[in-house]
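Quick start: load a record and inspect it. Here is rRNA-processing protein utp21:
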Amino acid sequence: MKVELADGLVAKRQKLANGIAKPQRKPGSSRLFAPYRTIGLVSPTAVPFTSVPLGKTTFQITTSVGCSLQTYDLRRGLQLVFITRPQTPGPITASVAWKDKVFGAWSEGGEGGARGAWVFKRGKREAELEMPKGWREDVKAFCIFGGWIIGVCDTTLLVWKSTTYELYTTLQGISPVPFTRCIASLPTFLNKVVVGRHDGSAEIWNVSSGKLIYTVLPPSTAYGAVTAIQPTPALSLIAIAYEKGPLLIHDVRADQMVMQLNTSAGAPVTSITFRTDGLGAGDDGQKAGVMATASTASGDVTLWDLNEGGRKAGVLRAAHADPTPAAPGGVSKIEFLSGQHTLVSSGLDNSLKTWIFDHTPFSPIPRILHQRGGHSAPVTKLEFLPSASDGSDDTGKWLMSASHDRSLMAWSLRRDNQSTELSQGAVLSKAKKQGLLSGGSRDSLQDLKCPPITAMACSLNRDGGMGAVPGKHPIWQNAKGKKVDAEVSAMTGWESVVTAHARDHKARTWFWGRKRAGRCAFPTSDESPVTSVAMSPCGTFALVGSEKGGIDMFNLQSGFHRQRFPARLTTQQAKQLKLDMHKQGLAEERSEDGKKIFYRGQGKHASAVVGLAVDNLNKTVISAGEDGKVKFWDFSTGLLRHQLDWSISTGITAMRFLRPSDLAAFAGSDGCVRVVDVGTYKLIRELWPARTPIAKLQNVVISDLTFSPDGHWLAASMDSLVLLWDLPTGHLVDAFKLQAPCTSVAFSPTGEYLAIATKDSVGVDVWSSKALFTHVPTRRIGAAELAAIVDAKSTQAPTTSGEGGQELIIVGVDDEEEVDDDMMAGLDEEPNLDQLSSDLLSLSLVPKSQWQSLLHLDLIRARNKPIEPPKKPEKAPFFLPSLQNKQATPGAPRPEEATTAAELEKERSRILKQSAESGQSKFSALLHEAGETQVYAPVLEQLKSLGPAAADIALRSLGAGGDEMLTLVQALTWLLRERKDFELGQAWMAVLLRLHGDLVVDDDALRSAVGEWRDALDGESKRVARLGAYCSGVVGYLRAARV
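Running the structure step on this input writes:
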């Protein structure tokens, strides 16, 4: 940056902080937003969860969410209690919980990437395991027992000491076949672990001596790799599962197969667990011997009864989602909690569930106890819940998100355990009745849920909360021919969310308060797929736009169709209109202002409707067509009022409406965002990324856009780039790059957060606005700077632990963004809180109770006066000695004899000193000094520091002869003219006149001083009244209808 001086251009020196140059902002980072956190991640990775008992009352379950670990408490209903910080440099590859610590191994990937293993305690990093120098293999699994920590890599076993975390040894066999992630310790076998390999063998190692003890070979080489190993409650027995073979119970001491269980083909067992509470098996569930198995290729959990040769006791169908082309699935791990009848399962569908065996009569199949989950596929649509009409404090708290996994989630930004999925009815019960759960293919199971959501709209003005339309109702039924009780719905409210779905001709409704699917599904009149939806601000009407250009309006209370846009013509009206148009050319008729006149039935969109909105007064409906035409309809009659035709230059891909300002933004296929004033039908802004076209942004389409709640900013996403324009100036003020292409953006109603969804994440990234906490420069970004941001390799994204939010308060200003030193001068100085400006009449910072108590101190003393004299205390019991009757100890000196002459002299000096000082108090001394110097601030500060009782005594002790009272009146007049501490000065003057009013009347000087104070008060009163009248007039002018 350069500064122009008298003798030419010179380079401006870099601003230093404590002698250190400020770090430069990376090209791809944001100036106006700071990463806050990522929500919606529970168990999205293939790393299995780990659990540990916490005393005898609960268990803590830890899952991996990429570069952090999340710990949930079982007794609190899987409430999130810890998130590990700091984040690991790379994704976590293995984790294990042991005592009060959690171990996490991470890897940056690649040949040259770093690896490591960190130790966390209560979410904070405490230590690090020692890694071999130059280590290049990922740790795939952990096993901890005794004093050993074992990590499984591809070709090596790493052994650490659990007390010092130092590397003890590395174990590497002679087999070239790599290890799988299957490892288990052998109870009662000292220092022994069993590890599986990809050729089906299971090796037993002594970690203390570093020797291979024995190798358990598979019965057949065709069984494939070992996929799961788990020791059984019976000693010397382990369960081994193979990729293409059965599940075997093997006796490692005798090297004999004890039991063979055949599993489902195509779904190899990847997780095994045994129930340890001694129940669950047999016909009545009173025997031990229950085993559960699961696979990453299926969402089912199989339960086995190992008594009498072993049999399949039951199958927990659809415990987690099955893998589909659109979303991952399968069960990553299951585990019976030690000594409990509770089963914990996690799936690749980003969910964590607990199941309990408590059916009466006995059933081997458990029921759901707790569950936490999120989307299993990338998020496609975001929408913050608008403000409710009752002014509740939920504004900005709730965020709705839709995904390819056919779910609609509600996320709470304040309390994570309140987040939930909106119910779509008893999907599993329907699937069970139709026999879909037992079939080999479950594609039809997904068909029982609604198709993926492509658009959503919400209005809470008629939302009834939990009590909306009570009772059981069929979901998503056509309202035609169905009787709906309007009185009940009018008293309790009705649905408040409407959604459009991919390749579906019906828009569906949802109860927000009840978090479930609504009663109605609104079909399009032309039976083409729904492409856009909207709701009226009153919450009564829903509008549905179709792929063929039709627009229909429905009543949410009754579910009936109310209007079409354009309005529907009868057969006779259509014939007459065609005849008139042919004879008289009515289509070309224009009004006095030159606008085209549209008749009933005219103006239908010729292409898909990509956007719909209703204005704040339910008078105008705005619709945007894919062909570039924007139409404005009359809400009541369905007639077309006006249209904007941009079809020659661009098409429209998306639309957003800012209801408080009546502004509509349209994303064009040419990369421009056009803003229209709905009231005047005029184009007021054209927002381009840059004046000079950038090659890499030429063919990039705007995927989504959103207004800030105050209408100051407009954000849009183009591929992995997020752009932010300042609407008043039309300048591009911020641009930052994401790690993946953006699919949706949304501003919170409070302006605090910007939510962003990307194609590579099942979570939602939430960003915080820096403008709420600090000054942020909003200069225009030029074409050269934007090109550098597009080419930048550095990206920015929030994290689950919220570490990126550390820049929210401490914001460094780049050299190019520096504000002038004159503007920033004085910001580091301590602000004057007593008075913001000398033109403002300010109040004091003294507590209100202090000066109010001074005004009514006599009343308070009268109220607190005792109503009867104190009573003589009753005699104490005979066994308690009395100080008065206590006999002196023989030989002990009496108190009066113990006083020495020195002590008497000291006491006499103290009394004399106190009596000398009592002649003049500090307040009186300051009054005398103020009378001589005319500086009144110290005496008023002293009076402010006194309590009500002390201030009353100080005012009562004033004497007229010493000019103390006159000085105090002059000080109060000075305080009034300074326009400071107004209510405090009024209270002091009121008490002064009440106590010494007779002296003021008799003394001419005092009477003159009080008159001067009164004149100053009248002048200030008139000034404030004049300013108030001026402000009232300005507000009235701005609120006038003509303005």
